[in-house]
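<instruction>
Derive structure tokens from the sequence
<data>
Labelled lines for chain and fold:
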Amino acid sequence: HATRDRNNVPVRSSLARVHFSTGRLEQRIGLDSEALKSCEAARAELLELVKLYPEHRLANQLREELAACHELAGELLTDLRKPQDGLTAWRDAVTVREELARDNPAVTRYQEALPAAWTRLALLHAAADDRDEATRYARRAEQYWQARPPADATGLYDQARVQALLTASASSESDGAVS
């Protein structure tokens, strides 16, 4: 019975991808509530697969897809005016991405996904007026880019947003020290 269930992992992973893709499409046409339901179905499936089959040959792919689902949920929850829930989903995404990067140091895409996730989390914390957490995640992204400059336009844009956030944070700290 366990072997039969293990053999269903690719099928269940495909089902999760269908839910995720449906959610992404629903998001693009402005159906955010429906998109969140699709995303949550994908997340539930992937969470179960990751938990039940941590040693499966697809385990890293499942974790990477789970991180993407957390990110989509974070976007949707933020758009649905549930910023704290959005932050939680993004924290979950960062946790999974950090584990993937730590467990697979030779896999470049896992390493390169980190600063984008840290940037998004920094910006969400800044929007929630949590300057300390925003600065913490922005600095992590900045430190990454000091060692490995961004490889594409999206990375350069994220880097610029992090620099702006850190500059604004430093400016407000110095303004606070003067008053």
Notes: Helices lie at 2-7, 9-28, 32-52, 59-79, 83-103, 108-127, 131-147, 153-178.
